[in-house]
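Lecture 7 notes: from sequence to structure.
We start with the chain below.
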Amino acid sequence: MENKTQFLQTGTGNIQILTLLIFLLGFVFNGCAALQEAQKQRQKRLDERRKVDQLLLAASDANIVVDPTPIEGKPHGESDHYTLTFADDLLVKADFDEEDERKMFANSALSYMESLYNALHSIFGFKPKHKIHVTLYDLYQGTDRIATTGTQYGFRNNGRFVAGIEMNFPMNMYDRHEVRVHELTHAFTNIYYLPTWFSEGIAVLMQTEYAKGGGSPKYDNLKQSMKLDPNGINELENWGSHRESTSLTPWRYSYAYTVVSELREKYGKELYIRLFELMDADQLHLRLYGKMPSSFLIYYMSQAAGKDLVPFFKELQFKVQKLEKDDLVKYIQQINAESQKGHQH
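Predicted structure tokens for the same chain:
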């Protein structure tokens, strides 16, 4: 009996140890599962903030200071990411000729623009380093139908940098939500010195599919709607400036939008987020003294898509070539030399 009792006691000990091991394994498993679930929820929240089918603005908590009658050369309002100035031709209008009116409008406008800034920051994952200087007009460059975003650049030994950003709106354009989204997209993405066709395509994408504003409809078929120059090159490649206006301009906006939208539909809503992250990691765009060539952009776009996109663009008659990572530095040197030669002439 003594031996039997001892056996039972030993067996009970084994059961207790086994139970403890099961408990510990369950604890570890549950901990891992909980960690994985937390990571999934975090990613879900990030994805929700980056949804491309809606643009929901949260209230801004930015610091805003308004001076309805500033000394000459000073803005009428300033916030964390903006300054706001009323042009002289706006100050004589009935809605802006009194201090209380200017103060109320400046507070409201800066609060809205800060909310929009935060929304685009969440979507893109990056933001400009400089404040954006916004000027509102009654008429800008003699019309109330254009708005512009200008980015000033400087140069150092190690490359180019953004020296300032300004946005100009006649009130007729500022009052349109989709126009504000379009121009603020430029303020964000111009820091990458993108080809004009891609910069405008992204801005129209944001204007149309985020802000739900029309103006540049998509084409049903990219091949059938191509326009080529006398050398057989897609006319998007000849789009030299955001402010350039020709008979081709409406087609260029729609075609550029169609290109960037179709690629995003095919390779996922995070395609351009990944593109900018890859460019930001390399910082090679900072070494470009001229406009970024399409081949340079498509190198990063292919990495973001996980597929060589050069054939897609060649089929659309873009003048592009496939580059490997080692080619980029040589390509930058070549482009810079050509750019400097052009400036000398």
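Points to note: Confidence is low (pLDDT under 50) at residues 1-15, 17-25, 42-54. The CA atoms of residues 84 and 304 lie 37 Å apart.
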